[in-house]
Structures are given as structure tokens and as C-alpha cells.
């Protein structure tokens, strides 16, 4: 029988934490983590740890701005990556990540300030539990980690948000399916979620869905983003992105 690792009071505090803030954006974990951290690795999340060898420093100590890399486990066949945002204590982190929780039957959400608890015996961050928004609590799974990939330079918040705005401008929004999603407790980065057959009442004319709203960046801004060297953007461009982001943040969202 495995010994108790953490005091009951510690778990009570973790379970009482505020839930993550979810935004409705159709985004995978990889481009989100790349934008937020500046760690320029491509490909499925499960390949990042090996790809980082010789290019970026790696370790088992969490640092703000680092990429937390998950080992494929259970339904998480492609692995997962997240950006470390805050060190709370030696067993607790806050991360930001995308495409983890299934909220209102929809995947692809961005979630900020997500609580992660180290449950490894040696406090080496080899196994963690992650806040799961639909349950309003820490998920029951203990997810194995490779460790952390450290960027060559920690990306500033403004630069990270500019990079993310550029990614979102090219990301099709997630859409509700005509079929009812079956909720599981947890299931990040699955290739194809299980769904129940939709009930068809009667044949109706197909309606063209309304055009999704999002970051409506100007052609000039998008052109400059294409030319930008590692997102070393001009002050005027950053100001325009900030303006667009603030306007978008005020718009009511359905989630």
C-alpha cells in the first residue's frame, strides 16, 4: 500500500482552489505552449522532450516560463504541453494550457491559472494531478511527466500575448457538434472523442453557420506578424494587438 504523500489539510486546500478561467478558442496545446513560452519546437506534444535535447535545457525543477511536458498516458495518446505561469510552493504550480478540459461538450479551450499538484513520492514532479474544470476540482488521474523544458530567454507577458494573438488569428474557432459529446472525467489531447449518435427529428434545410468572431487583425498587422523575427514586434503593432485583445475580452462569449 502506497504511503500517504501529502497531509489531508494540503489536499483540502488544493481542492478548494478557484477553478481555472476558460476561454472558448479552438486551439491545440502545442501552438499555445509555443506562443506563451517561445520554445520553438514543432510536432506532437509527446515528441517535445526528445526534440529539446541539445537545443534547450531540460530538468525536473519547475520554473516560470518553462514548458511542462506530459508523457502519453491512458487516453492522452499524443502527450500534452503547458506553460508554467507561477510557482505557488514546492508542490503546487499554476499553468496555462489549451485543449485539456471538455467544457459544455466542447474541446479546444484555453485555460489560465490552472492548479497542478506534484504527487510524486520524491517531490521530483514526475507525477501530477491537474485541475479539471468540469468537475470543479483536481482530476483523479495522476499524470506522468517527462519534466520541464526551459526557454533560452523567458518570454515577457506582452510578447507572449502578442504571439498568442497571432496564433489565434489563424486558428479556426471550435464549433459545437451536431452530436452529443460523452463526458469522461479527463481526456486531454485525444485524437477522436467518443460521441453518442444524434437523434434526428425531421429533415430540415441546412443553415450556413454564422461567421465566427475573434481577433479581427488588420491585413497590415498580419503582414507585419509574418515578417517579425521571433515576434520582436514594433511598439505600434503591440499597441494595436493590445487594443484588439481588450476589445475581444469585453465581448460576451458562449462556453
List descriptors.
6-stranded antiparallel β-barrel; globular; 255 residues; two-stranded antiparallel sheet; endopeptidase fold (from Nostoc punctiforme); alpha+beta
What would you note in describing this structure?
With 255 residues, this protein is α+β, with helices and mostly antiparallel strands. The chain has two domains: 147 residues, endopeptidase fold (from Nostoc punctiforme) (Alpha-Beta Complex), CATH 3.90.1720.10; 67 residues, no CATH class. A hairpin with an 8-residue loop joins β6 and β7. α2 packs antiparallel against α4. The protein is globular, with a radius of gyration of 19 Å. The N terminus is likely disordered.
Number of strands: 11
Q: Helicity, in percent?
A: 10-25%
Question: What would the principal axes of the Cα set say about the shape?
Answer: globular
- The second-level CATH architecture of the largest domain is Alpha-Beta Complex
Question: Strand order of the main beta sheet, please?
Answer: 3-4-5-6-7-9
Instruction: Name the helix and strand elements from N-terminus to C-terminus, one letter apiece.
Output: HEHHEEEEEEEEHEEHH
Average pLDDT value? 74
Fraction of residues in β-strands? 15-25%
When the domains are counted, the total is: 2
How far apart the termini lie comes to: 41 Å
Q: What do we call the CATH topology of the largest domain?
A: endopeptidase fold (from Nostoc punctiforme)
Query: What's the total helix number?
Result: 6
**Could you say which structural class the secondary elements and strand pairing correspond to?**
alpha+beta
Amino acid at each position: 500500500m502506497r504511503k500517504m504523500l501529502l497531509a489531508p489539510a494540503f489536499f483540502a486546500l488544493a481542492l478548494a482552489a478557484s477553478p481555472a478561467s476558460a476561454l472558448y478558442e479552438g486551439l491545440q496545446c502545442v501552438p499555445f505552449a509555443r506562443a506563451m513560452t517561445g520554445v520553438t519546437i514543432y510536432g506532437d506534444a509527446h515528441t517535445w522532450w526528445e526534440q529539446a535535447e541539445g537545443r534547450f535545457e531540460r530538468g525536473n525543477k519547475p520554473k516560470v516560463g518553462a514548458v511542462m511536458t506530459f508523457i502519453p498516458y491512458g487516453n492522452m495518446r499524443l502527450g500534452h504541453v503547458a506553460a508554467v505561469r507561477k510557482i505557488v510552493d514546492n508542490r503546487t504550480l499554476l499553468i496555462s494550457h489549451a485543449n485539456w478540459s471538455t467544457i459544455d461538450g466542447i474541446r479546444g479551450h484555453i485555460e489560465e491559472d490552472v492548479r497542478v499538484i506534484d504527487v510524486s513520492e520524491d517531490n521530483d514532479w514526475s507525477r501530477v494531478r491537474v485541475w479539471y474544470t468540469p468537475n470543479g476540482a483536481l482530476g483523479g488521474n495522476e499524470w506522468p511527466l517527462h519534466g520541464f523544458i526551459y526557454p533560452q530567454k523567458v518570454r515577457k507577458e506582452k510578447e507572449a500575448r502578442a504571439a498568442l494573438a497571432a496564433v489565434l488569428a489563424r486558428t479556426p474557432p471550435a464549433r459545437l457538434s451536431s452530436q452529443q459529446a460523452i463526458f469522461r472525467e479527463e481526456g486531454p489531447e485525444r485524437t477522436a472523442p467518443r460521441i453518442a449518435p444524434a437523434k434526428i427529428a425531421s429533415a430540415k434545410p441546412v443553415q450556413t453557420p454564422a461567421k465566427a468572431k475573434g481577433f479581427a487583425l488588420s491585413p497590415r498587422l498580419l503582414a507585419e506578424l509574418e515578417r517579425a523575427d521571433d515576434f520582436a514586434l514594433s511598439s505600434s503593432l503591440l499597441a494595436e494587438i493590445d487594443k484588439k485583445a481588450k476589445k475581444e475580452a469585453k465581448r460576451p462569449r458562449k462556453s
